[in-house]
């Protein structure tokens, strides 16, 4: 049985839902210059806004002006918490100002007050793919050590402003994305440069910034709980060949566990020497990493892959990672393999390795939902997906006593897909009337999964 204070809710990112990209003093973020795309046509980074391009994050679902209506719907579902991020460029429009933008801070005052009025705990990601564009253009992004100070100043402003209001924080969303999708993570790599070297140096700067933010959070308010947030996946060996088993082990270690090792243990693991990268690491960096370990592990989990030591085989996607097709699993419309047992597998490894509380902060199914002739959205496929994953989550908690803080479905309301820039890749239990070209009334509408999830929360996961 899950604990009484279990944090049920939903998760979004500011850049995928807020819109209002140039209102109330907000500056441009990296997501404001990334176009729409599709499964077959990747999103494009234009470095400036072009008249002949469509940027879906500019309006998104206009949560900035609809948040009260949306919070009312979240409250009807019974949310105990709501995970969102703060748009860095609402607080520091260019990233390197001396003083924050009061209008941006005031928006989050209103947002958090509205959540608290409904008994919903805000869970806040400090940086979720939305760093100021000017920090990329002027400084090269996270490859520049100066970003550490810009970030920690920004984090300090948040901790002071929302002291006693926000208790749960995460420093960076899916921090491992820094070495996979560098520009979205805020790293500018020029043609001809050593991408691996620059990406891991940028990651190191993020590790140090995260550790300093953790220390600040604890100093400013000892009640703060600060977690890392890692994108996770599972890779099963394709065969019983020992080299496949080793390849699968390395897939998990290098793709997920390395990023937890540094933030949870406070030092680089010995196997990092096998990466053959020489980083600029100072003595102060090492002290900060040790002093600023996280309080819990936040993670996203959607799918699993198969791994082989050999080249070849049918490749499949899952979030921003790929692997081989698993013949024992079904896949979503976007090719992500559905594997609730993989969640058990992963949670067991994470808890045994770190003995820190876990928090599932992203899990859900993207689907091209259709309104039927009766004006309804019968998303049984989403219910089936969530039911299976919640059951797996419950089973492993009950069997092994894992300390699990909560579960926030991605996303409780339809938002712009980060990976493809589409609206039709819908995750929500609340439908938003908007299409891939940006047309629609933005009207909100409950799907069948809305009432199902309400009952799940009401029963603390006992009725699935």
Tell me about this structure.
This protein is α/β, with parallel strands linked by helices. The chain contains 12 helices and 12 strands. The two termini are 13 Å apart. The protein has one domain (7-458): TIM Barrel (Alpha-Beta Barrel), CATH 3.20.20. Helix 2 runs parallel beside helix 4, helix 6 packs parallel to helix 7 (195-220) and helix 10 runs parallel beside helix 11. The strands form 3 sheets. Strands 1-2-3-4-5-6-9-10 form an 8-stranded parallel beta barrel, surrounded by 5 helices. It has a two-stranded antiparallel sheet with strand order 7-8. One of its GO terms (molecular function) is beta-glucosidase activity. One of its GO terms (biological process) is carbohydrate catabolic process. Keywords: Glycosidase, Hydrolase. InterPro entries: GH, GH_1_N_CS, Glyco_hydro_1, Glyco_hydro_1_AS.
In a nutshell, what does this entry contain?
One of its GO terms (biological process) is carbohydrate catabolic process. The chain has 464 residues and is of the alpha/beta class. Helix content is 36%, strand content 16%.
Keywords:
single chain, 464 residues, alpha/beta, TIM Barrel, two-stranded antiparallel sheet, 12 helices, 36% helix, 6-phospho-beta-glucosidase, beta-glucosidase activity
């Amino acid at each position: 049985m899950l604990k009484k204070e279990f944090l049920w809710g939903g998760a979004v990112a500011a850049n995928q839902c807020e819109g209002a990209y140039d209102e109330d003093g907000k500056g441009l973020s990296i997501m404001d210059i990334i176009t729409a795309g599709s499964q077959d046509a990747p999103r494009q980074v234009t470095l400036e806004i072009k008249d002949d391009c469509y940027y879906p994050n500019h309006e998104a679902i206009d949560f900035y002006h609809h948040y009260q209506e949306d919070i009312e719907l979240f409250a009807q579902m019974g949310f105990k918490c709501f995970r969102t991020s703060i748009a860095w460029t609402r607080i520091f429009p260019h990233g390197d100002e001396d003083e924050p933008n009061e209008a941006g801070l005031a928006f989050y005052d209103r947002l958090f007050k509205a959540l608290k009025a409904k008994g919903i705990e805000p869970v806040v990601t400090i940086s979720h793919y939305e760093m100021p564009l000017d920090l990329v253009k002027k400084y090269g992004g996270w490859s520049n050590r100066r970003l550490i100070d810009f970030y920690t100043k920004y984090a300090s402003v948040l901790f002071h402003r929302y002291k006693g209001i926000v208790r749960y924080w995460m420093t960076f969303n899916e921090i491992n994305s820094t070495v996979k999708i560098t520009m979205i993570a805020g790293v500018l790599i020029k043609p001809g440069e050593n991408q691996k070297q620059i990406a891991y140096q940028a990651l190191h700067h993020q590790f140090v910034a995260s550790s300093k933010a953790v220390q600040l959070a604890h100093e400013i308010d000892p009640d703060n709980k600060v977690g890392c947030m890692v994108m996770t996946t599972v890779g099963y060996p394709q065969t019983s060949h020992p080299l496949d088993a080793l390849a699968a082990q390395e897939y998990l270690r290098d793709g997920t566990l390395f990023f937890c090792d540094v933030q949870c243990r406070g030092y680089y693991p010995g196997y990092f020497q096998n990466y053959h990268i020489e980083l600029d690491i100072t003595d102060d960096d090492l002290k900060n990493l040790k002093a600023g370990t996280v309080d819990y592990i936040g993670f996203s989990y959607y799918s699993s892959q198969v791994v082989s030591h050999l080249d070849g085989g049918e490749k499949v996607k899952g979030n921003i990672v790929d692997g081989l097709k698993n013949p024992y699993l079904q896949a979503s419309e976007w090719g992500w393999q559905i594997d609730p047992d993989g969640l058990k597998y992963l949670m067991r490894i994470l808890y045994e390795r770190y003995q820190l509380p876990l928090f599932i902060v992203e899990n859900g199914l993207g689907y091209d939902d259709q309104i039927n002739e009766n004006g309804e959205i019968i998303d049984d496929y989403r219910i089936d997906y969530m039911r299976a994953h919640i059951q797996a989550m419950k089973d492993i908690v009950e069997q092994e006593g894992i300390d699990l803080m909560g579960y926030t479905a991605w996303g409780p309301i339809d938002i712009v897909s980060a990976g493809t820039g589409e609206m039709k890749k819908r995750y929500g239990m609340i439908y938003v009337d908007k299409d891939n070209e940006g047309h629609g009334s933005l009207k909100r509408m409950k799907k069948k999964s809305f009432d199902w999830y309400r009952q799940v929360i009401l029963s603390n996961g006992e009725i699935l």
